[in-house]
Specification:
- GO terms for molecular function: blue light photoreceptor activity; FAD binding.
- This is BLUF domain-containing protein.
- By secondary structure, the protein is an alpha+beta fold.
- It has one domain (3-141): Alpha-Beta Plaits, CATH 3.30.70.100.
- The chain is 36% helix and 28% strand.
- The chain has helices at residues 18-34, 56-67, 101-104, 118-127, 134-141; strands at 3-12, 38-43, 47-55, 72-82, 94-97.
């Protein structure tokens, strides 16, 4: 088994209500647990960014399914890398809604002596609205 992480970003077609977001989290967590998938989803009412961890074939199959979901468009894989261990092993589907103040702070600052995995750095950048992909933003909001 080759363990990988895949990180993607996408544009939300219509903002999800709190209930819809919780339903999505619950359904995905149940399915991910059965498939030994772990990860984290960030949501800011305009975009999703997700880290998916698991067996390479399983993650790639899940990503193909995710790309077909009508709740978002312009699904772009940012990275797909082999990893030695899971960074989100405790979460079948962690979720942070960046519009909710208590959840906003769940991605913690790094301790200076720890090396932060790329997935954490990307999620933190997304949270802080530092993460920009020129073409993705142009397609999402126009020039």
């Amino acid at each position: 088994m080759e363990l990988i992480e895949l990180i993607y970003i996408s544009t939300v077609t219509t903002p999800l209500s709190d209930a819809e977001l919780e339903t999505l989290r619950r359904q995905c967590a149940a399915a991910n647990q059965l498939s030994s998938i772990s990860g984290m989803l960030l949501y800011d009412r305009h975009h999703f960014m997700q880290v998916i961890e698991g067996d390479k074939a399983t993650v790639e199959q899940l990503f193909e399914h995710i790309k077909q979901d009508k709740r978002h468009t312009e699904v772009e894989a940012l990275i797909s890398n082999p990893i030695g261990k899971r960074n989100f092993r405790k979460w079948a589907m962690g979720l942070i809604d960046l519009d909710k103040e208590p959840s906003y702070h769940k991605i913690k600052e790094t301790r200076p002596h720890r090396r932060l995995p790329l997935s954490y750095k990307l999620l933190k950048s997304f949270r802080n609205h530092e993460f920009e992909i020129e073409e993705h933003i142009k397609r999402s909001f126009g020039s």
